[in-house]
Amino acid sequence: MKDWGVGIERPWRASAEPVDPALDADAILARILDPDRRGTLHPLYHRLRALDPIHSSRSPRLPERCFVLTRHRDVDRVARSPAAVNDPDTARVFDRDGQGGAFFQLMRHAMLFLEKADHDRVRRLVYKAFTPRAIAPLRALTEETAHALLDAVAAKGRMDFVRDFAYPLPIRVIGRLLGLPDEDQARIEEWAWDFARAGDPMTATPETIRRGNVAADGFHAFFAAALDARRAQPRDDLLTTLVEAEEDGRGLGREEAIATCVLLLQAGHETTADLLGNAVLNLFAHPDELARLLREPALLPAAVEELLRFEPPVQLSMRLVREPIDLGEKTIPAGSFAALVYGAANRDPEMYAEPDVLRLDRGAPHLAFSAGAYYCIGNALARSEIQAALQVLLERLPTLRPDGAGWVERRTVRLRGPQALPVAWDRPDERRTDDGARPASMSQSEARNASSAARSAGLSANGRRRSASRPPPRS
How far apart are CA 410 and CA 390, in angstroms? Predict the structure, then answer.
């Protein structure tokens, strides 16, 4: 059974908290890295960027000799620099007390933490399964899964968006891509949750570390057996692709293959679940933009990019700097670490006009998937999943709105997303169709028929021609 833990309660209408002007850069960073103290995050990012955009950290929560980067141009420069790498040394943050537990042993073989030559080799072998063309057929699977999840709750009129939709959807899609049996889904989801909680060193507790090691042991045994089975009897799935992948006669080593399976599973669902949760939160906070998206479903691809910019699921990642990197007023010396704060870079006013305003048609580039050699290999899949999921969600539940007094934020630093997100909508027996408006909630077949008819007639998603659509009210 998943241990959801204790999150941080947040009100729906959270106003930006002013930052005490007496706080110095170290004090601001301490709050950013402490979920219980930081409150509203982005004012802290703005203040740290203004005070010291290339901040030499003294925080015990970060490695020694670590520079915290909050300016877009600096984050982008270091992310693309061949001198800034992930390698086995950066994985040592998971070696709790030098015990070399199962979690660390698995992570040090993961693609992200291999020496650069091995990282590039493994990435090339895996990438072919994640090109936009390769993942295109999964769009239909995502839509089917989204419909099935909504079928289970539509008549209730309310759900926890995270537990009932955002979390199970991407893990089931990536599970199908890997070729994982449906009967193993429950234990895979439990391991995945515990593994992810152990992956944030700044907030891990002895219990999350213990559960993370148990999950790592479970994953190792499970994927070792699954890969052996594919060697004996290949199938049309990603596990078989990993078994058969070769470059210059060299394939993945056994530990590399197992770690790659875990990495793809984890990266293929955790950040997408957070992105879905963050997207709904920020659409609730910007009801005019939500109403516009309901009126103009063709805006969805651009909307997803803006939602990624506005609140990326990965807020921060680390790089080891092997050669000095000149950033103008400061140089990051060799042997240092760089903390790339994507959440701050994506709200940099030097890069974006009115960065704290959500504009779904902004069309600006962002760093939500990083850049350079470590650019997210699953970005096309994530984009496809979020577009399909939001399309189905808003078609089926156009009256979606916040439920109750607030939501619960997860106690994490590197990743950011809701832990509990109560939402509600008008049930089928509360439909109002006398004015020709789209029903308050729709069945799977009704939603598909409405979308098809709208496309054929040149209408918007709610069946009207540019007329106003009632936005979900904020509590």
Answer: 22
Contact 36, 412 (CB under 8 A): no
pLDDT attached to residue 130: 84
Indicate the range of 58-72, 80-94, 298-312 predicted with least confidence.
80-94
CA distance 256 to 122: 8
Q: Look at strands 406-409 and 418-420 and give their pairing.
A: antiparallel
Band of residue 294 on the pLDDT scale cut at 50, 70, 90: very high
- Using alpha carbons only, give the angle 322, 327, 330 rounded to the nearest 5 degrees: 90
What is the distance between the alpha carbons of residues 271 and 325, in angstroms, rounded to a whole number? 29
Question: Is pLDDT at 15 greater than 80 in this prediction?
Answer: no
| DSSP states along 157-173 | SEEEHIIIIITHHHHHH
CB neighbours of 333 closer than 8 A, spacing ≥ 6? 65, 321, 324
- Where are the chain's structural domains? 8-457
Q: Which of 54-58, 243-247, 263-267, 371-375 has the lowest mean pLDDT?
A: 243-247
Give every CB contact of residue 354 below 8 A, 6+ residues apart in sequence: none
Closest CA to 419 of 10, 64, 37: 10
Interhelix angle 25-32/41-51, rounded to 10 degrees, is 150
Homologous superfamily of the 8-457 domain (CATH) = Cytochrome P450 (1.10.630.10)
Please give the C-alpha separations between residue 187 and each of 3, 219, 228, 241, in angstroms, as whole numbers. Answer: 13, 10, 20, 24
Q: Please identify which residue in the block is written with the tokens 């040592």.
A: 92
Proportion of the chain above pLDDT 90, given as a percent = 63
Q: Which ranges in 370-428 belong to alpha helices (H)?
A: 379-396
Q: What is the pTM of this model?
A: 0.88
CB atoms within 10 A of CB 469: 21
Q: Is the pLDDT of residue 452 over 70?
A: no
